[in-house]
Amino acid sequence: MDDRFNTAAGWALFAGIVALGGTILSGEYFHHEKVEKGGYEIADASPEGGAGGGTAAKPVDFSAGDPAKGAEIFKKCTSCHTITSGGANGVGPNLFGVMGQKHGQVAGFAYSPGLIEKGGVWDWAAMDQWLTSPKKYANGTKMSFAGLANPEDRASLIRYINEQGSNLPVPPPPAAEVAEAPEEGGTPAAEAGAPAAEAATK
Ligand code: HEC
Question: Which residues pair with 102 in a beta bridge?
Fold first, then answer.
């Protein structure tokens, strides 16, 4: 009798603890969600672009980048960034001369701790990784931008950014062949995924 009661009480207590833990965890989760979704997401990356792999990125041929094309691509950034000398900070910091600078050094801009803690300098490789997937690069970043999946677009964009007040020497082409045709449009993969997911629930 007593034993049974104790067992039942024990399970009830245990369930309560689990529920409490769950609440705390989901609270944390939503907290992060809120921070990340501070602005609006500009979807440009195909699912494989930044989220995939965990393997080393393909080498980007910056020497093949076209700064004029990069200026066009930069229009995706102008809702949040200026890139002229002395330009104002907006949702994001002014980007004039950012190449070669330390992360998060623009005066008067409140960066996320994630980006500050990353440390280091915006060199070609760092900027390439950042623009592939800001979230992967700096955990908890405030930059609500999905990333650019196409390495040629990133090469052009970074060449353009470099010309706005930095003018670092452009790296030579990577020794290895740049892998052909970047994956454009995630639709076929997404469509293929849907029936599979349906099948799995049955
Ligand atoms: C929705 C607004 C938004 C868009 C669009 C956006 N950014 Fe940002 N960007 C930010 C914010 C906010 C930060 C500060 C990030 C942080 O503190 O974590 C940032 C930071 C940066 C930084 C780091 C600057 C520094 O001083 O260290 C670079 C470089 C950058 N963005 C480049 C770009 C480029 C290039 C694009 C376009 C492809 C772009 N951003 C699009 C909001 C945006």
Answer: 121
Please give the distance, rounded to the nearest whole angstrom, from the Cα atom of residue 18 to the centre of ligand 1: 39
In the chain, which stretches have pLDDT less than 50?
30-38, 46-54, 189-190, 193-194, 196-199, 201-202
CA distances from residue 55 to 51, 139, 153 in whole angstroms, order as listed: 11, 18, 20
Distances (CA, A) of 66 to 7, 154, 195: 71, 10, 40
d(CA 160, CA 174): 19
**pLDDT the model gives residue 182:** 58
Q: In terms of DSSP H, where are the helices of the chain?
A: 2-36, 47-51, 67-73, 113-118, 124-132, 134-137, 151-163, 187-201
Domains, the chain, ordered by start? 59-163 (1.10.760.10)
Q: What pLDDT is stored for residue 33 in this prediction?
A: 45
User: Is residue 158 in contact with ligand 1, taking CB distance under 6 Å?
Assistant: no
Measured in angstroms, how far is the CA atom of residue 143 from the centroid of ligand 1?
A: 5
pLDDT at 22: 53
